[in-house]
Each structure stands twice: as structure tokens, then as C-alpha cells.
Amino acid sequence: MGKNSQRAVWGTRLGFYFAAIGSAFGLGNIWRFPYVVAENGGGAFFLLYLCFLFLVGFPLLIGELMLGKVTRRSVVAALTRLKRPLIKEGEAKNSARVLWWARLMPHVGRGSVLVALIVLAYFAVISGWVLFFFANILKVLFWVERFFLVGAFFKLLGN
Fold this sequence. Notes:
- Helices cover 77% and strands 0% of the residues.
- The protein has 6 helices and no strands.
- Helix 4 runs antiparallel to helix 5.
């Protein structure tokens, strides 16, 4: 890519908001959350959940969004760029004790990419299950045995 190339940006704020909400509320939260609330005390658990969501979750989300907006880089490159000022500051104060966690920043970025890939693989399996069961429902609804082309399509899906 040359110097004149531009990075893709969100077309609208609404599109960004939907993407952020979609990444924050995973399928596991929607499936398991009522069960977890019921098993762990109901209203008291939900109240603590909301407290930690606002005290820990939202500040981390805002910090990550700000880091991405300021650096305009990927998560690994942004955290690597963040590491440089922290190490210089640590060396200036005490060269023997460089901020040890500053050296971990690029690895934190790589770890977040790895977690995203694992979640992607997990969602691919669940999406396959959904398509399989949806195809089985369509078989019953459309009486697939009577329609040769549709029946052949569903036989291909079943193999």
C-alpha cells in the first residue's frame, strides 16, 4: 500500500454502534445469562453484575475504543506503540525497575487476537448447527421428497 492509501472507516455512527453491541453481547451471554442469574441468587447477582459492568466493563471498553481511535492501528500495533512511552518513563525513573507490565503490552494484543479467532471458530460451529436444523425444518415444511431439485439440494446438505 502506498502513502496515499486510506484506511476504511465506519460509514455511520449507527453502524459502529451495532457492531460494538454485537461484539459485546455474545451468543453465550444471551443463552446462558438467565440460567446463571437464576443459579447465583437472582436479583442480588444481577445487581452485582450491573455494578461490575459499569465499574469495570465500560471503562475497559471506552479505553480500548480510545486507544484504537488515537493510534488508528490494529490492536497489536496500538499496544506496541503504547509500550514505548511506558518503558521510557520507567527507565527515566529507575533503570533497574523498568515497568514489567509495559513489556507485556504487545503480547496482550496478540492474546486478544487469539481469543477473537477462538470465538470465531466457536461461532462457526454454532452457525453450522443452526443451518443444519433450519434445513431439517424446511424438509418437513416443504415435503422435500416430492420436489426433485429441492430434495437433491437437501441431500447435498445432509452429506
